[in-house]
Amino acid sequence: MGKRSNQRKNVALFDSDDEGSVSSSSTAMSELTVTPETEELYAGDKGLDQCLDALFEKRGSTREKALSLLIDGFANKLQHQFVENKCITLLNQCHNSIKRGSSKEINLASRVIGMLAITVGYEDTAAHEVLEESIVPFSQALKSGSDSLKISSILDCLAVITFVGGSDTEATERSMQIIWQFVNPKLGSNVVASKPNTTILTAAISAWTFLLTTMDGCNLNSKTWQESISYLSNLLDKDDRMLRIAAGEALAVIFEVGNLEKILDEAKGSSDSSMREKVIHLQGLKGKILNQVRNLSAEAGGKGLAKKDLNSQKNLFREILEFLEILYQDGYGPETTIKIGADVLSIATWSQLIQVNFLKRFLGGGFVKHMQENIFLQDVFDFTPKKKNIANSDLYLSGTEKRMFKSPNSALNKARTQSLNKKRMMSQGRNTGHYSVSAGDEDV
Where is the region Disordered (predicted)? Predict the structure, then answer.
């Protein structure tokens, strides 16, 4: 990662006079607009260095332009050399933007942090440091204000950096608990006391579900699962269509992981009367969810406005319904494929589909580039492009980096192990269902 101690000292010097500090080597961001003549600017370290220098500027609009160009730079090329030297400095400046910036600046800074984590994903220590260094500033920012863009952006970023840098179950559960407080706020929680609006609620459920895909449900608390299933079921009756879709996806992943069936099996084997009551309650809850899914898969309209959203909802819940019905009949469902450039990515589970869709939305135009060249994402999704354009990639790993990449404790192997465990668990007592939602054969 380079000389981190020196980088921290440099950042501290700038932070001592935060609002008035101007780097002597900075370039006016008005000169860093992305045009055909300057599109190469952010492709190299020099252009990114200029953007980084501009993050020390006083004017918020200048920092916003710099962050936008950094996002373009990370999307268009894997900037390993730059992050190796400037990761900590960039991370700290993004944290400063989250502390003092506008909602727009916070949104952009969150995107940069998430893309930074994805870029260093092959290096487990660096990715973990991005997560750990971000927990405190993120938690503080989430406690202040209730702006939808600000909170949604931070929750998205928290989910991404945890997905990449969460080195153990405890780290992932910590982030999921932070996010869940925005799904179902309770007295005494460390979030804004007011009930979140549907935009924040939808974003929180999506982020929580994204992290849920990495967890082994067998190790999670039964009481927590019962509460989450019941709460998500209630959200299926809400008027907001995108909220219903997010809740449906979360329930699909919960059913896939197998927790509801696990809870039922545990309760059935007990002679405790309270456990028998739990069985009755959960069986009723399962029946309620199936009925809700069936109704939403055939809804004629009336809830929500956009026809596109209605079609998305109906398609999603038809798939969930088929998945659940096949699941309980021990049947099989077909796999889904997504085109990535000239290649095809095979999707085997709901969890994988949720991961792909979430990362596709977060990376935007950089999704294809990262899937084609980012070895972290390729390993997570077991994806090998037919043609690797090495000439256009700056991904040259040292021997040390390769050893870290292959380490059994790395984020990559953690993801692989979780995926294999999930597949083994699903093959014991039940089989996979139909996972095609909206991705289908869509060109990315």
Answer: 1-33, 407-444
User: Is residue 131 within 8 Å of residue 165, measured between CB atoms?
Assistant: yes
Neighbouring C-alpha atoms within 13 Å toward the C-beta of 353 = 26
What does pTM read for this prediction? 0.76
Position with higher pLDDT, 441 vs 282: 282
Note the pLDDT of residue 301: 59
Which of residues 329, 364, 386 is at a domain's end?
329
Assess whether 92 and 130 both reside in one domain: yes
Q: Are 381 and 356 in contact (CB under 8 A)?
A: yes
**238 and 352, same domain (yes or no):** no
Radius of gyration over every alpha carbon of the chain, rounded to an integer in angstroms: 23
Write the CB contacts of 15 (distance below 8 Å, at least 6 apart in sequence).
92, 96
Look at residue 193 and tell me if it is in a domain: no
Q: Are residues 345 and 324 in the same domain?
A: no
Residue 115 pLDDT more than 50? yes
Quote the number of domains for the chain.
Answer: 3
For residue 203, is it within any domain?
no
CA–CA separation, 123 and 119 (whole Å): 9
352: in domain: yes
Q: What is the pLDDT of residues 170-216, one digit of tens each?
A: 999 999 999 999 998 874 455 554 566 899 999 999 999 999 999 87
Q: In the chain, what is the greatest distance between 2 CA atoms, to the nearest angstrom?
A: 75
Residue 24, Cβ neighbours under 10 Å: how many? 5
d(C-alpha 128, C-alpha 134), whole Å: 10
